[in-house]
Amino acid sequence: MSVACRQVVQTAREMNPRVTTNEALELLRKQRISPLPPESTIKREFARVDERRTYALKKARAKGDVVDVIELPLAGGELLAAAETETGGIAALTTEVVKIAERAIEASDGQTPAKDIERRNANGQFTDRYNRARRRKRGEQIASYLRTEEEKATVLRLSCVFGPHQIGTEDQSWVAWVLVRELDGAAVTIHGDGRQVRDVLYVDDVVDALIRAWSQTDQVRGRAFNIGGGPSSALSLLELLDLVAHLRGQRPATRFEDWREGAQRYFVSDPRAFMATTGWRPRVLPRTGIEALDGWLLDSRTPVRA
């Protein structure tokens, strides 16, 4: 099994302990990683991740650091989970969010969206646009619930989160994915012209936003905020490739393919409402954060000598 293949499989298991071998194979196909490993090899990698998780939990519980395993159903959740392991500062917050999500989903039980032909392509499959909307469903249910219930909670709509402890895939955590592809000597596939723009947000700024929301409940309760780097952290794929070239001394190999159906060419979040309410602002610029992520990726691949 190649290094890239092992990273995708293990990261998928770390992010979702219930991921199946078929789902892992689908991720590998999307990454265009070949040859594909047999299911027995994937299961072996799953077992390694599970053993590490079990060992870490036993050790943490022995120290009294961990009570429950909390799943974060949001973009960048694996980064926040890593931060929680190190600091223990957001456990109560995430626990409360999960409880609210469960109540919201229970309250909406039986309300099934009507089938719409526009949600499917010519082959009868859900479109990329609709799949993105479905992935946001849990967060939107929470937001709807908060507008009708007196709950001391808020919704933070996170932009493109990145930082150490992130491996990335072509569809998620794309900043880390580009760095990993270059490190593996593999080509980066770009759908479109590479000028599509997103604002990126470093994980430290995400944690700061969560803590501020938690500590200023009365100011933010029942509201939904866009949380992102904003215009000062806007980055195109071509600009990211230039940053990687600056870090590594060479530009990653690239290949261009057609635009994906429903691709959004420009999105930059506007976090001014949250900034005005809490005093928060993103502090880590893209270049500084990408340098930190690159350093972690390089260190994570360096063998430890006895």
Give a written overview of the molecule.
- Strands 2, 4, 6 and 8 form a four-stranded mixed beta sheet that branches. A two-stranded parallel ribbon has the order 1-5.
- It is built from 13 helices and eight strands.
- The radius of gyration is 20 Å and the shape is globular.
- With 306 residues, it is α/β, with parallel strands linked by helices.
- Residues 66-76 and 112-116 have low confidence and may be disordered.
**Tally of helical segments:** 13
What percentage of residues falls in helices of 4 or more residues?
A: 40-55%
What proportion of the residues form beta strands (DSSP E)?
Answer: 5-15%
Rg, Å, rounded: 20 Å
Distance between the termini: 25 Å
Give the tally of β-strands. 8
Mean pLDDT equals 77
Helix and strand sequence: HHHHHHHEEHEEHHEEHEEHH
General shape: globular
Structural class by helix and strand composition: alpha/beta
Mind describing the biggest β-sheet?
4 strands, mixed
**What are the segments in which pLDDT stays under 50 over at least 5 consecutive residues?**
66-76, 112-116
What is the strand and helix layout of this fold?
Elements: H1 3-15, H2 21-30, H3 39-63, H4 77-87, H5 91-107, H6 128-135, H7 137-146, E1 155-158, E2 160-162, H8 174-184, E3 188-191, E4 197-202, H9 203-215, H10 217-220, E5 224-227, E6 234-236, H11 237-248, E7 254-257, E8 266-267, H12 272-278, H13 286-300
Helix pairs in contact: 1-2, 1-3, 5-7, 8-13
